[in-house]
Design a protein that fits this description.
Layout lengths: L1 H4 L2 H31 L4 H14 L1 H18 L2 H6 L6 H14 L12 H13 L3 H18 L18 H27 L10 H23 L9 H18 L1
Helix pairs in contact: 4-11, 6-7, 9-10, 10-11
Length: 255
């Protein structure tokens, strides 16, 4: 099954889509550059901004590359490459793929248990579930953004403005992550309490240990960010935490 998922046909299908999206990005970049020149922006500043942005984007993209590598072992390389290159998100793709694999009866995301039906279910959910943000933004994007950025009016009719709701998106995303982490940590704790598969690779001991290492690594990055006011740390804190956690998984897995 893994050989079929890595077949030239899969590379061709996914590669054409990725190349199309890349071409669209280039077209918009060229149009934006020409628009900047048309309104009188400094060309030298625009070129420095382009170089700095391209350089600055390399480190955060390491996390995406890690996601492709992590998923390629069970889903092949072309499909994760497509999903994480177009509109996918690292945290979304891995969570949905794992949940779909378990729901389809495969017992988890594994190349050994992968069947055509299981892959079809995973690919369908990964594609359909994430497209609604794009669809809804096309239909109601302007009014939604306006509601988020418009200060809340006081109920008593006074002229004093209420709290700004522009940070609602960040709060909602944080709440979602807390819910996801709580669900997974809760399942691991449940396995520990029941004693089910405590010292197996699919058991609770290794995921719990790796989660703690990843959290500790992220805590160190946040401490460096706040202690030294190093905003650049934010660009690779996620990728760095993932790399450290993966190394910990390999080391602890051998133990």
């Amino acid at each position: 099954m893994l050989a079929k998922l890595n077949s030239p046909v899969m590379y061709l299908i996914c590669g054409v889509i990725v190349l199309f999206v890349a071409a669209v990005c280039i077209v918009f970049a060229v149009r934006a550059y020409r628009a900047g020149k048309a309104i009188g922006m400094d060309v030298s500043k625009m070129k420095r901004t382009i170089v700095a942005s391209a350089t600055f984007a390399v480190i955060p993209s390491v996390g995406i590359l890690l996601g492709v590598i992590a998923l390629s072992g069970s889903l092949g390389t072309p499909w994760p490459w497509l999903r994480l290159s177009v509109i996918g998100a690292l945290h979304y793709e891995t969570q949905v793929a794992e949940a779909a694999a378990e729901a389809s009866g495969a017992g988890g995301l594994s190349a050994a248990n992968m069947t055509p039906e299981t892959f079809t279910t995973i690919a369908l959910l990964m594609s359909v579930c994430i497209m609604w943000g794009m669809v809804l933004m096309t239909v109601d994007g302007k009014s939604y953004i306006r509601r988020l950025t418009t200060p809340k009016k006081p109920k008593d009719g006074s002229k004093k403005k209420g709290p700004d709701l522009s940070g609602f998106g960040d709060t909602a995303m944080t709440a979602m992550f807390i819910g996801l982490v709580s669900a997974y940590i809760g399942s691991y704790i449940g396995q520990i309490v029941s004693g089910e598969g405590l010292f197996t690779f699919r058991g609770s001991a290794l995921p719990m240990a790796v989660a703690c290492v990843g959290a500790a690594a992220m805590g160190v990055f946040l401490w460096i960010r706040r202690k030294y006011n190093a905003e650049w740390v934010d660009s690779f804190s996620l990728a760095g935490s993932m790399l450290i956690a993966m190394c910990a998984a390999i080391f602890l897995g051998r133990i």
